[in-house]
Amino acid sequence: MTTAATEKADLPDLGPVAEVGQLVKGPSAIGSDPRRMWRLATLLATTDFKLKFFGSVLGYLWQLVNPLMLFGVLFVVFSFGLSLDAGVKYFPVGLLLGIVLFSFVSETTTNAVSSLVQRETLVRKVDFPRLAVPLSRVLLGILNLALNMVPVLLFLVLSGARPGLSWLLVPFGLFVLVLFSFGMSMILSISYVRYRDVEPIWSVATQVMFYASGVFFTFDSIANREHGQLFVDLMLCSPFAMVLAAVRHWLVDPSWEAPWEAMSSPWLILIPLSLIALSLVVGALMFRKQSPRVAEDL
Q1: Helix, strand or coil, per DSSP, at residue 281
Q2: Which sign, positive or negative, has the C-alpha torsion 269, 271, 272, 276?
Q3: N or C: at which end does the chain have fewer Cβ atoms within 10 angstroms?
Q4: How far apart (Å, rounded) are the C-alpha atoms in residues 113 and 283?
């Protein structure tokens, strides 16, 4: 065997090598190891959570102070001022729950919009899974949601509510809301890389979602008006409005109408559920297709 052949035989097998002029595909959304992608997303989320309270005297307690102060204002306004309860029990707590859940969706998706751009230095790494970036925003939102739910449960019990079997369904409702937020986070983050108009558009969309999702009112107070049932059906087609109504029904009190009760037909519940599934499918397909070119588009 010649010397050149011997040296070639001693070299390790590096796999297929791209030829000159051959297109080299960039890193995929998940990367070569899904577990590594999950660890990176968890690390990014916990790091951002710790940095949020770095140097603060009260530290993580500030995450509880905000909903506590907010509930104090809402309790005074709606208990001694305005009266919009429409016959439902624990209206101030139901209102606080709506704001907490909306804050989760708004915070998660809004932060995810520019997440890939903000993490440009990581995204440009050769083997960095791009999906870890928006996923970290969702995980961070889950941490904040878990802390914000503590005062909601505390004030609900202090208001006179008692735990029931329906409380076991609440994690399922929150899980569905997380899936919707994750799906939209994928769509928004990957779209923002090329189209920077996504951020102001989504800002307007979240405002519309907030005021049209029943955060400040009950759906039965609208259904009794002219063409009210049509508006209720349209509003409950929103995945957030559907989940909020369901969680209020299970957690706060059954006097809060469930979405399948407020709709003109229980089958209409399939519309928001389909939109949640659609957001996950579209987000996954968009990320799979555009992830290899994210670094170039940035």
Answers
A1: helix
A2: positive
A3: N
A4: 13
Closest Cα partner for 184 from 51, 279, 257?
Answer: 279
Indicate the burial class of 90 (C-beta count within 10 angstroms; 0-12, 13-18, 19 or more). buried
- The rounded distance, in Å, linking the Cα atoms of 226 and 185 is 37
Does the pTM exceed 0.90?
no
**What DSSP line would sit under 100-153, residue for residue?**
HHHHHHHHHHHHHHTHHHHTHHHHTSTT--TTHHHHHHHHHHHHHHHHHHHHHH
Report pLDDT for 188.
93
CB-side exposure of 243: number of CA atoms within 13 Å? 28
pLDDT (0 to 100) of residue 11? 41
Question: CA angle at residue 101 from 118 to 107, to 5 degrees?
Answer: 10
| Segments of the chain with pLDDT less than 70 | 1-33, 52-68, 70-72, 74-87, 125-126, 294-298
> CA distances (Å), 150 to each of 67, 96, 143, 144, 197, in order?
9, 12, 12, 10, 36
- Residue 232, both tokens: 């209720």
Distance CA 175, CA 197 (A): 29
Sign of CA dihedral 251, 257, 261, 263: negative
